[in-house]
Amino acid sequence: MPSKTQPIRKREHAQPPPQPEIKLAQPDRSGPKGKTLFDLAEERQALLDKGKPFPKAATTGKTSSKDDNVPKVRVMEEDDEPIGPFGQAAFFTSTLAMLHFTLDVLVQHQYKQEIEWGTIVRRTGMVVPGIVTIPCHSHSSVSHQLS
Questions:
Q1: What is the tens place of the pLDDT at every residue in 1-19?
Q2: Which spans in 5-79 are helix H?
Q3: Which of 35, 52, 92, 131 could be 135's S-S partner, Cβ–Cβ 3.0 to 4.6 Å?
Q4: 95 neighbors 80 (Cβ within 8 angstroms)
């Protein structure tokens, strides 16, 4: 910072920056030149409503010799649960325990110099029984409300 007695020097003017190779221009606001996504979606929905994009064999579950590579389609019923309530509880418990473990590692890393892995594993193990109850209670309350 200059002192009060020294005069302030003027900046020497630098050369202006070179002109960009791509010329700047305003965007074209006249509207779309071709089909928009909305138009394509309407056309696709019309085809779906007619049932044209799918061969008849795929909807009935039977395969013909002509369409051997078409997978069979099976519609799941409302009562059809692929893993059941125990599977859901195990899935949600494992994912929430991993999240708890990860956040605990981040907190330890932020506030301590060394991470104590045994403490983190013990705390995650203590949290798991509480986490198991969340999907179990939510599943049982939903099933009682439906019946």
A1: 555 666 676 666 777 777 7
A2: 37-50, 56-60
A3: 92
A4: no
